[in-house]
From TrEMBL:
Residues 1-40 are annotated as: Disordered. Belongs to the TRAFAC class myosin-kinesin ATPase superfamily. Myosin family. Pfam families: IQ, Myosin_head. GO terms for molecular function: actin filament binding; ATP binding; microfilament motor activity. One of its GO terms (biological process) is system development. Residues 23-32 have a biased composition (Low complexity). ATP binds at G169, E170, S171, G172, A173, G174, K175, T176. SUPFAM superfamilies: P-loop containing nucleoside triphosphate hydrolases. Residues 630-652 are annotated as: Actin-binding. The keyword Acetylation does not apply. This is Myosin motor domain-containing protein. Residues 72-767 form the Myosin motor domain. It comes from Hemibagrus wyckioides. InterPro entries: IQ_motif_EF-hand-BS, Kinesin_motor_dom_sf, Myosin_head_motor_dom-like, P-loop_NTPase.
Amino acid sequence: MAKVKQKLLFRTENVSGGRTEGESGSFEQGGSAKRPGKVNRVTERLQARRKSLNDSLEGDVRAFLVNEAELHTYDDLTKVNPVTPTTVLKCLQARYSARVFYTHAGCTLVAMNPFQPIPHLYSLDVMREYHTASQPQDFKPHIFIVAEEAYRNVQGQVEPVNQSLVVSGESGAGKTWTSRCLMKYYATVAASSQKCQHTVERIERRVLDSNPIMEAFGNACTLRNNNSSRFGKYIQLQLNSSQLLVGASVQTYLLEKTRVAFQAPNERNFHIFYQMMKGATEEQRQEWEMPCDQKFTWLPNAEKSLEEDCFQETVEAMVNLGIDAHKRAQIFRILAGLLQLGNVNFSPAPESEPCGLDQQSKGFLGKTAALLRVPADELRECVSIRTLRAGKQSALLKPCSQSECVVRRDCLAKVIYARLFDWLVGFINSSMCADDSKWCNFIGLLDVYGFECFLLNNLEQLCINYANEKLQQHFVAHYLKAQQEEYVSEGLQWSFVRYQDNQRCLDLIEGNPTSIFSLLNEECRLNRASDAKQFRERLQKELSDNGSMSWDKFSKQPHFIVAHYAGKVSYQIEGMMEKNKDPVPPELLSLLQKSEDPLLQSLFADTETEGKPHGHSKVVTVVSKFKNSLENLMKILHSTTPHYTRCIKPNPDCKPLTFQKEEVITQLEACGIVETIHISAAGFPIRVPYDNFIQRYRLISNTRLLAQGAENEAQIALGPAVQDILNAVLRTKSSAPNNNNNVMVHCGKTKVFLTHAMLELLEEQRYRVLSQKAFSIQCCWRRHQRRQRAIRTKCATFIQAVVRGWLVRREVRRWRKAATVIQNKWRSWRALMDSLAEAELDNAEDLQEEEEARSFLFQRGSVPLSSFPNPQAVSSLPLGLAMSFTPSVTVTLTTTGFHKIMSIMATLKIPFRNGEYKVETNQFKHGVASIRAQPQGSVKLHMQRSPLRYADMYPGSHTDQVTGFNQILLENS
Ligand SMILES: Nc1ncnc2c1ncn2[C@@H]1O[C@H](COP(=O)(O)OP(=O)(O)OP(=O)(O)O)[C@@H](O)[C@H]1O
């Protein structure tokens, strides 16, 4: 802790004198002016002390830098010791040389621009790795850590739940690149699960497709960056309650529309014009009056070829976003019209006459009119003649001077382009913005133009730098000022860090009642010809008290200099008031409203064209509009959890992997990185109110919440509970060596102040306890499930056994019943038959003797063999038959019962040929050995019916036994 304090003291002394201090910066020096008599001695003592501190610090710096090989291993600059601009710079340089481009600087991420694509640094696999890691902070610093942290904050519903990712840095530092990476990250990780893939995929695609369109229409090649964003944007990624990306919206700020009609030397117009020029098909060229060899004044440096000149990609993105072919044709036709308009030149004319046009310009004007679908003569008139109205009197026409014509021409182009850009943004929003009911949280990405300082700076630069000042103030307020103020109010012992407070600069630009903006607005509302010199004097008179304003005594141009947080910038006053008014001649507006192009017409449909005399309150100037939109943005930022990423441009020439120390140190100082590291290293960046702390971490020590009473009582009640939790965590930590727990946590009056390390410990412990509890729950649940399953199985087996038993018993019962019935029937039938047979056999002799019975029972007769029935007929005889033999017929029988006899008879075949007969059989196995018959005369078949009706009704048990006496007798006739 002593060392940290020492470092802080050093910084207190080293902040450059030209900058304002943070309010609390005087805390350290509070007693210095107590007794004037002793001032000298005190000052001497102080100086001596400072000198010795500086000497020892230089020694520390040297000692730190000796270990050069290790410098690149510092992932977090808060671990650098001592923290000085030199040590920080050396670490960043070492890391850059080792191709490591991201470094933590406490609460901020420093992103160095490699100016060349780094393979696999942003691949899908890397995204997934960071997303699925349990502790992404343990991974190498990366923009994905910031993205993941914000995403997890939303998931964990940590207040404030909505997040803002602020990407800042100067032009070309890599802000747009970083924003693109963040959008890709969220489009990947916040993608839907399989089941609703279709609906959400559409949004992810659209969010990503909005980039090429916005960049084509809003980016341009400047001296500092080939793909410089010429507008600011805040993208809100809308997440539903499951943290899936369900929509997005874009808010844009201050498009640099002057670029359409004016491009600084060696700069270019917006990319889209070059894309059209280079990527149009022959057919499109004809339609747009854009032959290959055509030169356009507003397309300078067209020969420079950039990877951004990719028309096809823009068109594809437009298609994906739902801009149909018809609309695209309208858009490109309007843009082509603007290019033609840029080639129109006016020649001077006498005061009472409108400016002339040479032959070429007439042609260009005609083409412009045709492409914009407005009458050519009206267009010419609008651009070169002004309509003056005084009240309700009839209009007076006044020809414009040559320069006025140029201004009106440029104004026409600017207003059309700006409205077209806004229309595109509106279209993009409508195609990807989710219904309010569908999303509940958002992650905002802010990509604003970087700080700008050119040789000539005007209103655009003033607005851009003002926006950067606002963001810097938000950063300072959030990370430096508010923290230190809170430390005081919570009663922490704290050595204060000086920081650069830019409030004075902001007061100068936007303050009330007098500031640059207020004076500019006043000038515009006076509705008089603006005079730069007069305005400069006014500024000097009103604002010279403000230390952030100065003038260059040797400059002849009316100007003023503002000392911004990132450096001094000189602004020229000439043209500033006109730009602030941004007037559009009403004739031009009404001309555009009459256009036959439906898109162009709709762009101006709801614009007031009648030149009303401007009352004081009516004029809405550029700066007041910009200030309002910026204030709204700041409100959003203040209501969200911010995450800052500072992009650093390592060299001004955009050379790959080139590190220029001076360039980097200026940027580090400008954005207050060193101060941020100090506060992050020494302070407690995480501050959690007691009850939130207990709610989240009470499970670590099984703390029970007491009933809450008044705030103070609650605090008193919560204090020991918080202490219990911290003790529980620190006890587990104290087993590890080198712990210095006392500097990791501090209990304030209402909040617990934590370092990131302590938060990690708490979260780790919470995670461990949660895992244990989850494990116990799982065990119980599994045991319960196992038991339930066993019970179910047992029950099912029992039921199955019972049912099967019952079924079998039922079946057996049926069988038994049936068997009994059959047995009974069979037995009674057998008994009946036996009795009948017995009775019959007993009476057989008597029957033979009885004459009447004989005539009844014996039937004799002869049947001609030719009419011998077929085997089926034989088999239908009621009783078994025995074959007798005659001299001419041999029949051998081995009878085996009734059925055998029947089958023998059935197999007999007696073919009849020419009155002869032959008896044959092939059924040896049925006992018929042979049947032979001589074909002599006719054979008579004598049938004798047995007198016994029952005695041979069933086959005997012996094979040779034939019971009964039915016979067939064959004999010669
Ligand atoms: N991480 C990176 N990896 C590779 N190249 C990068 C990276 N970041 C930036 N660049 C390169 O640097 C160039 C400038 O970056 P970018 O356009 O994002 O800057 P910017 O800060 O948005 O500038 P401006 O404020 O002018 O819009 C890019 O065109 C790209 O080529």
